[in-house]
Amino acid sequence: MSEETKQELAERQSGTKKLNFSMLGKLLVIAVVMFGFGYALVPIYKQICELTGVNILTPKDISIKEITNSQIDRTREVIVEFDANTQGPWRFRPTVSSLKVHPGEMTQIVYEVVNKQSYKMEAQAIPSYAPQQAAAYFKKMECFCFKQQTLEANEARQMPVVFYIDPSLPKEVKTITLSYTFFEVGMKPKTTADGV
Question: CB-based contacts of 186: which residues, under 8 Å, 6+ apart?
């Protein structure tokens, strides 16, 4: 092989290495951007849900001052219906199907959940309201939906929801439905062919 051919081959290899490093750099930038976008999706999703009023997770920023200043409107009653939907291997239900409450009156309801599996699970409840406009007037002070729940194998638990209806709820709204969808977060444990 002549000296010129060796030099041309070395130049081509050097050019190929530069192109490979350039491509590697671009791929790394794309991977970092995709990873960052994945993390940004959660707050973006929450903002979109807040703006559109879909699947609003009730904020926990209600102060005690707000509670003590709220007046109970004893001139009217609102029927609050409770509903439970599950997406997973458990039993989930409210202890009562409905209550009559006065706007401004502090009320507690309990939901029961039973993990029917032989392993620990993480679960989350997402509330929704009907009519949709009622979400702005349904104030939760304590709720199992504020954080993920860890349920041990075959565990049964009672979970309270403490709430009041804002007295400024429009007079035409006479019934509010509070519905929770309870679903598993994460993956189930893997089993082998022996079931171990």
Answer: 121, 122
Q: How far apart are CA 101 and CA 172, in angstroms?
A: 15
**pLDDT tens for each residue of 156-165:** 999 999 999 9
CB atoms within 10 A of CB 6: 10
What is the pTM for the complete model shown? 0.58
CB-CB contact of 132 with 53 (8 Å): yes
DSSP helix, strand, coil percent of the chain (3-state; round to 5): 35, 35, 35
- Counting Cα atoms < 13 Å in the Cβ hemisphere of 60 gives 8
pLDDT of res. 103 = 93
User: Which DSSP string corresponds to 127-147?
Assistant: EEEESGGGGGTEEEEEEGGGS
Give the tens place of pLDDT for each residue, 38-83: 777 777 777 776 666 665 544 544 544 445 444 788 889 999 999 9
Mean pLDDT, the chain, integer:
81
With beta carbons less than 8 A apart as the criterion, state whether 163 and 139 touch.
yes
- Say which residues have a Cβ less than 8 Å from residue 96's Cβ, sequence separation at least 6: 82, 109
